């Protein structure tokens, strides 16, 4: 008979000095989201809560498997295990910290679980400048001009028009 794997609570009985101690494997009460996007002016708290007997310890690891390191004033693990990214000035943006993948791990003597990874992305609110770079094109040929937007806001900016000679607006239409 082939056994099927199922998620269930395992009760371990340990007899020690005449006492019976019960252990319950850890399980998630609240797993972190798959994506966590926030601005540098708001910050974010990413919850990861577990239960079991004994109460599981919550830790966070980076994508490479190393433990997440707290950075004063930017990111820390709260007492309940939640991960807090504090509001920060734009000059303290660090892609290795603010554009990274973290995984919550809950563990106790009764076992451990990993949550699905959470992609963290901080967006810096403030002034930024887009660029259009010169293109070399031969007379009579078509030139393609690209609007270059800084990487930290690229996913949140839409080009709505182009301005020629500071007076003529070119808007997109149904035909491209």
Automatic annotation (TrEMBL):
Domain Ig-like: 26-121
Bilayer-crossing regions: none
InterPro entries according to UniProt: Ig-like_dom, Ig-like_dom_sf, Ig-like_fold
Signal sequence coordinates: 1-22
UniProtKB keywords: Signal
SUPFAM superfamilies cross-referenced by the UniProt entry: Immunoglobulin
Source organism superkingdom: Eukaryota
Name this protein carries in UniProt: Ig-like domain-containing protein
Species for this entry: Meganyctiphanes norvegica
Lineage: Eukaryota, Metazoa, Ecdysozoa, Arthropoda, Crustacea
């Amino acid at each position: 008979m082939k056994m099927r794997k199922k998620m269930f609570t395992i009760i371990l009985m340990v007899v020690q000095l005449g006492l019976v101690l019960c252990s319950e494997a850890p399980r998630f009460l609240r797993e972190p989201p798959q994506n966590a996007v926030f601005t540098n002016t708001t910050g974010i708290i990413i919850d990861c809560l577990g239960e079991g007997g004994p109460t599981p310890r919550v830790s966070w690891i980076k994508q490479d498997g190393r433990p997440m390191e707290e950075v004063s004033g930017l990111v820390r693990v709260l007492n309940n295990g939640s991960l807090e990214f504090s509001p920060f000035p734009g000059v303290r943006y660090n892609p290795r910290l603010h554009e990274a993948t973290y995984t919550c791990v809950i563990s106790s003597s009764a076992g451990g679980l990993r949550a699905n990874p959470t992609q963290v992305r901080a967006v810096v609110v403030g002034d930024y400048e887009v660029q259009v770079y010169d293109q070399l094109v031969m007379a009579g040929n078509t030139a393609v001009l690209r609007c270059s937007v800084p990487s930290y806001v690229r996913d949140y900016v839409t080009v709505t028009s182009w301005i020629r000679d500071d007076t003529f607006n070119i808007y997109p239409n149904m035909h491209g």
